[in-house]
Amino acid sequence: MLVIALVFGSASALAAIVLDLSGDEDLDASINGMNIVPITLVIQHKDTHNVCVAGPPCPGVAPDIPHAWDHAAGTDGVFGTVDDCPHCSAYSAPAAISMIATAYGRTGQYLQQDRIYDNGKSVPPEVTGDNQMQTHGVGMFDGTGGQPEEVQDALRWALGVGLGVNHHDSSDPITASILEQYASTSRPVLWIDHGGWPVNLSSSYPANRADQGHAKVISGYDDNNTITTDDDFVLVYDPWPEYNKSAILPVNATLGPGGTYDPYWLPIRDVDLSDTADIFFVPSVSIPEFGAVIVPVVGVLLIAAIVHRTRSRRETA
């Protein structure tokens, strides 16, 4: 089967190429050892009119419009400076959860990052589930260091009570073979990468990094057609907006499907499965079968995406 899609994207919008593979027997786009779980990239940002009363720079009243997707860089457009949006800069977990909830068919408030944060965050002065923000710039805890399991609570809320969540940490380590199995069975993985902060994240947000981490979604696996795992890659959907906005890649990453800077392919060795500080959350069941591969596109691009049963060459930026 051969599918060719041509897409024009605007410089300020997030688009998606949907490649119909409904006639193919491998609904997860298994291509010679490559499995891609169909999800859509979500950029971390404040996305509702919910009032933030945490103080400056938030005015304490509903914003005129939701923050633009790239406001993590603030009004100066530069990532890592003092005017960065305190919500956008610390919303990696809500954005990653939104990606997973979208894949499982959730809608409305269960996809909104403000609502995900508000229904998971429990450390005072935040009031859980009151549709207001009493905090910003502090991120969400995941139980590390005796802190509350705010990420877990937010994920359960977004996915709904009927869907369980598996948990991998130092007591039940995740392995390369387990990651590959999750990809082959349509189960995206929420990766809390302790110490894996984006390079240009403002030093002000979040304030307590030792007990938190940068959240990403692992949504694909490539075994490189070899038996060994040291040359394998995972497909990472990273909610940090700088990669696509500035056309850069994390260290050692390569371009994702369709030539995207985000999602990107990351060597399994850079995930560092021996890091006992990292935590991985995985829904207990597979996502509904879409019969499509979704490839996000950002910026002014002309993409010719060809999917067939020969391996496409992975390129570096």
Explain this structure.
This protein is of the alpha+beta class and 317 residues long. The chain has one domain (3-307). The protein is built from seven helices and twelve strands. It has helices spanning 86-89, 92-103, 113-120, 150-159, 176-184, 242-246, 268-271, and strands spanning 3-8, 14-20, 34-36, 165-168, 189-193, 214-222, 233-237, 254-255, 264-267, 279-283, 292-298, 302-307. A hairpin with an 8-residue loop joins β8 and β9. It starts with a strand and ends in a 10-residue tail after the last strand.
Short description:
The protein has 317 residues and is an alpha+beta fold.
Which terms summarize this structure?
7 helices, two-stranded antiparallel ribbon, alpha+beta, 8-stranded antiparallel beta sheet, single chain, 317 residues
Oligomer type: single chain
Assign an overall shape: globular
| Separation, N- and C-terminal Cα atoms | 28 Å
Mean pLDDT comes to 82
- Tell me the count of domains: 1
Which blocks of ≥5 consecutive residues have pLDDT under 50?
1-32, 290-313
Number of helices: 7
What's the SSE pattern?
A: EEEHHHHEHEEEHEEHEEE
Provide the structure class: alpha+beta
Residue fraction in strands: 15-25%
| Rg for CA atoms | 19 Å
Largest sheet: 8 strands, antiparallel
Q: State the total count of DSSP E strands.
A: 12
Helicity level:
10-25%
Give the topology, please.
Elements: E1 3-8, E2 14-20, E3 34-36, H1 86-89, H2 92-103, H3 113-120, H4 150-159, E4 165-168, H5 176-184, E5 189-193, E6 214-222, E7 233-237, H6 242-246, E8 254-255, E9 264-267, H7 268-271, E10 279-283, E11 292-298, E12 302-307
Antiparallel strand pairs: 1-12, 2-11, 3-6, 4-10, 5-6, 5-10, 6-7, 7-9, 8-9
Helix pairs in contact: 2-3, 2-4, 3-4
